[in-house]
Batch of 3 targets.
Target 1
Amino acid sequence: MEKKQISILGSTGSIGTQTLEVAQAHGMGVYALAAHHNIRLLEQQVRQFRPKKVCIYEEGQYAKLQEQLADLPVQVLCGMEGLCEIAGDTHADILVNAVVGMVGLLPTLTAISAGLDIALANKETLVAGGSLVMEQAAKKGVAIYPVDSEHSAIFQCLQGNRREQLHKIILTASGGPFFGRTREELANVTVADALNHPNWSMGNKITIDSATLMNKGLEFIEAKWLFDLTPDQIEIVVHRQSVVHSAVEYQDCSVIAQLGVPDMKIPIQYALLYPERMPCPTKRLSLTDYNTLTFEKPDPETFTCLKTAIAAITAGGTAPCIVNGANEVAVAAFLSGKIGFLDIGALSQRAMESIEKTEITCYEDVIAADTKAREFVRSAISK
Ligand code: NDP
Ligand code: MG
């Protein structure tokens, strides 16, 4: 098997660092790396993996990074321009988009127009601009390999079966640290409580999304776009152990699931090596370690983010983009202590209900809706 060259946007994050572990385990080439502001780790990664290009998004750190890397033959870039230069560079065989948030949309679209396949972790890209991304990817014949564990599971359960014989998908959810609590009990939870996820160690933004269950709402929308489903073909089931990563039910009543230990290296590797299944640097699953696997209904009345996200994708157009933009600002405000936990859901819902929704015909429509949502939440918080 020929060794692939990969480029990673968000290489210093939770998905980014695990992607490098997988790449190293398989002797893959690292063509380019990018981060937001962590130049210390980015420099270490450049010294270890010797990419041809590196980008730091924050322009204030650019000169410093250039100076730190002056002894190496690496081109140093910055800002959105730098991210897009990497995203559109077809010297790589695959782009891993592992940045967090809407900022990943333009690089994703750039990779698609260059014809570069994408391993997509950046789910916000599909939530905000799913119709654009999927349409353009189909037009260009670009493959989008899911990195999100649930979507990787579904993708795996679709292999060797007929897509038109799919009945529905079962999207599993860990339920996060607060599943089973009442709204009264959620009112005063702290940032530290919310960051304490029972099964997964992830970046801060997605960990908060997992606690509010917005993550599952975003994943519902992500699944709709990746697998061309209608909302009524997606069932969410709470499965506290995160062993069954999701399942597909076919017309004949057979349900095919994908299982494994909760370790993102498995879905990352499947996206990078598809369709190969090579040894992965993680633990093997031992079902008897678990004794019991549980499955429960979600509680959208308590975890209103779930309800808001599903209402948004059912409404269509820019509604999911508005919910995503509002949620990004609200989560950042919660993390910096400006609002309470339940305000995240309340603000996302109010943004979706208050802001006018339009169809999405181009990138600018997405940006306009995202900007309105962010302004709405910022102004609601400052009142
Ligand atoms: P982290 O916060 O751990 O990492 C985010 C990465 O993106 C960092 O490398 C960060 O750089 C970089 N980044 C952020 N903004 C920019 C920017 N403007 N330009 C360039 N780089 C940027 O997040 P995660 O790895 O947890 O999540 C990444 C994506 O993957 C999210 O969309 C998340 O929803 C999704 N995902 C994550 C999972 C997980 O297990 N972590 C599971 C499934 C999906 P810096 O370090 O400099 O800040
Ligand atoms: Mg997931």
Target 2
Amino acid sequence: MRYLITGGAGFIGSHLSDELLQRGHQVHVLDDLTTGSIDNLRHLRDNEGFAYTIDSAENAPVVAELVDGADAVFHLAAAVGVRLIVESPVRTIETNIRTTEVVLAQAGKKKRPVFLASTSEVYGKGTDLPYREDGDLTLGSTLKGRWSYACSKALDEFLAIAHWKERQLPTVIGRLFNTVGPRQTGRYGMVIPNFVAQALAGRPITVYGDGSQQRCFCHVSDVVRGMADLMERDDVYGEVFNIGSEDEVTILELASRVKEATASPSEIKFVPYDEAYEEGFEDMQRRIPDTTRIRERIGWGPSMSLDEILADVIEEHRAGH
Ligand code: UDP
């Protein structure tokens, strides 16, 4: 198969490129490098099945041409990270909506199946846990910038499902939960690369709020395996799948585990949310996926534990990548 990956120079997109190439497919990456990096793809330069174009997924003629040369599309191009979203809400909203409109419209002309990478953020602050794909979304006020991300991705989901229902464009949606692993940068505020970099440098490990909030972390290699598996099926169109780990950890516990695993002298420092993000910032206390659907439909489940994930990220940071 020939796959187009929008946002393929990002953390997850670059691992997806690796996975698809390993499966014997061809990959063409489209990325404007706003948050992606060519460094993430450097190791693929000499791979015959690999090519890339540096441009925006909002550029319809470019997307049209690339879709024409592909059998299917993974649409990952999107604004990334809560920090960026709070700081640049206009860009976040516009990027998320425009790129998805363009990709679905162009894929629609050629009837190329599309995988839409969505996010657990769409569940918002719902407390009906674990989150099920058919459960309600609980978003906060439009006065709180964070929720613009969830809302824009939810609209992307509506649009993908509408293309399937109304125009028979094959689409499938993956809601990715906290995904971590090598090549993830701490630049956009993600907690594990941040903690590991802080611990290795002997700087304070910054726990936002009181650290009692919980997350489930899944290794990126498990996540991209699930994405590739879903796209090899033709009986999942119009559906939404959670992709993530169900293994919860508090952020304070995470900080201690990183400190221990790196044998770091760093202190653990509590930073109020208002200082870390913006005044009135709302975080979700817990976020757990119900992965029954993806397990039952395609037999997917994560294979790596949090300790293995941390060891992998620490090794990468120590190697100075
Ligand atoms: N967090 C933290 N310290 C950091 C970065 C993040 O305590 O240096 C917290 C953040 O407030 C959230 C959790 O870690 O509760 C996960 O944050 P991340 O940005 O990785 O993903 P999110 O779950 O917010 O999408």
Target 3
Amino acid sequence: MSLWGGRFSEEPADAVFALSRSVHFDWRLAPYDLRASLAHLAVLESSGLLTSEVSAKIRGALLELIEEVASGAFTYNDTDEDVHSALERGLTEKLGEIGGSLRAGRSRNDQVATDLRLYAIDAMLGIAQMTIALQQALLSKADEYADAPAVGFTHMQHAQPVLFGHELAKHAHAFNRDLDRIDDWFIRTSVSPLGSGALAGSSLPLSPEATAAALGFKKSAGNSIDAVSDRDFVAEALFVTSMIGMHLSRIGEEWCIWATTEFGWAQVSDSHSTGSSIMPQKKNPDMAELARGKAGRLVGNLTGVLTMLKGLPFAYNRDLQEDKEPLFDSFDTLALVLPAVTGMVSTTHFDRARMAASAPTGYSLATEIADFLVRAHVPFASAHEAAGKCVALAENKKIELHEISDADLSSIHPALTPDIRGVLTVEGALASRTTYGGTAPAALARQLAILKSEVSAFEANFSAKSNAFSGMMSA
Ligand code: ARG
């Protein structure tokens, strides 16, 4: 059933209807559409456009529809074009002609923009909570391995020893930035387009400010033309979800490497790995690989929407209907990946002995020699040169740095006294990295304490936002 009978003498052709139709994917906006309709109804009533008798009937039918949509008792049919027309059909089936009253002062253009914002806020709150759960899993693993040394890498080559808890905690920092981005996204997303009508506002005595407040938005849009065509919040949500996906993919890559036989650092749990249909010995880190792979899809959704928006004239154009599937897909994808990665992180066992054995190898303590010389007032460039000579000599003699003889040390540089061996240990190297954010045990303990309080603050912030949102939805 189309919403525009009057000036048309023909029904849309089948191909037109098929291409126009969005109800099979935008149906998930139904609860938000109904909630926004309640807010719009309240304004139509308080401004006297609807009698309280008619309003009460419509309110009753909307409340019924909320229940019926939730239970599945009411859903779209083959003739519905989109969620808005399907729900108007639902109202009309219950109320007859007065079911069409809510279209007064409202267009699908402001309606869909409002619904999509409400949906995105709801979905983003879920993503924030799942991200926090992953951070908590990373933090408890970081605690578990806070005292476990391992070699750290740059360019995938042995660089300097680090504590493995430091490696794990770094990912929680990345997600802190994502949560910060989400928090910031709320500022621009919490703006209500309702009341903008098709593009120009309304001649009816509506109150966009009142509907904005009723729906929990911080404010009402300042320009009705912008309001119906602004999808910045969609593009930004797709960017934020891409960043989360990108961070997940980097975890995935590390897990894949750490789980190789060659590394042998990570033992992924049976519950979070998969087997092979032909090779009985295989235990594959598929969750890590899917985390890595899904990031591509998330970035694809972002580029698709940005490309659709590029050069699009204001105000509403039907191109905008293409904003939904990528947004839904990105939220759905993360809702699958985040819990799987959280489970994988919590149930992975790391081999302390193998990691500790790696820590001093590949001459990862060479920087200690340079720093030792700098403390003896040797300019860093000369100190670096001398440390490099120590590595060349050790490599030549197939010995470790601490095995270089006193005579060889002093011939390389007079300041290389035998007490250099005091810093040529993994423990010494770790203990000396005391700068803020460094890997020394004390610095790591402080880092973990700060991280935990930051994650708790995010948890409190997003649970307050979630409570406010559910309160609004059930009001
Ligand atoms: N299904 C449409 C969308 O998702 C709703 C808005 C349609 N508006 C219009 N003027 N045809 O964008």
